[in-house]
Amino acid sequence: MAYILAPSILGADFGRLGEEVEAVAEAGAEYIHLDVMDGAFVPSISFGMPVIQSLRSRTDKVFDVHMMVEEPGRYVGDMKKAGADLICIHAEACCHLDRTLHQIKEAGCMAGVALNPATPVNVLEYILPEVDMVLIMSVNPGFGGQKFIPYAVEKIKKVRQMAMEKGLNIDIQVDGGVTPDNADELLRVGANILVAGSAVFRGDARANVKKFLDIFKNFSQNA
Fold this sequence. Notes:
This protein is of the alpha/beta class. It has helices at 17-27, 49-56, 76-82, 97-106, 152-165, 180-188, 198-201, 205-222; strands at 4-7, 31-37, 62-68, 86-90, 110-115, 133-137, 171-175, 193-196. The model has no long low-confidence stretch (mean pLDDT 96).
């Protein structure tokens, strides 16, 4: 299983966004995490297709678009055109989750489902075989820099167990309060993609990426 760092550009300097993306990509981050917020599903408004499209020429890394918007199916085609490789939608934001996931795949993107902290994992029971990735939110979505919610660990375990019981080799991503201090534990319970904003972009982004990659390397060697 591949262990992947997905720096969230919400933690970057928006005045130097292109340079920040290039820096973490060159340092070894495989995904670039792009949080799209609509001010309805979550309180904040972040950015949309023009920003994603403007960054696409700066790197060939996977653009991991996290759609924190109501009824995200309305924007799947435009996100694909802007450069999305993976589109992750919230189970809580979709009236027809199955339909929207198939819409993402038909557009040629990988499909993910995100769960808010208080959403139980059993909502994935029937949809799990249709997804490439499950995102466990370990903070309440909408703002960067929040503290990790401890019970997210148990949710990661349960999703990994569900996937194994169904014979599925899906990715499990964790977003919110992820740091080098808790990264190893998250990998041990079944996560393999870690989203980090402040922990990457605060200070020397290249050095911070290396910290995470060293943790991944050590974990793989000792697993």
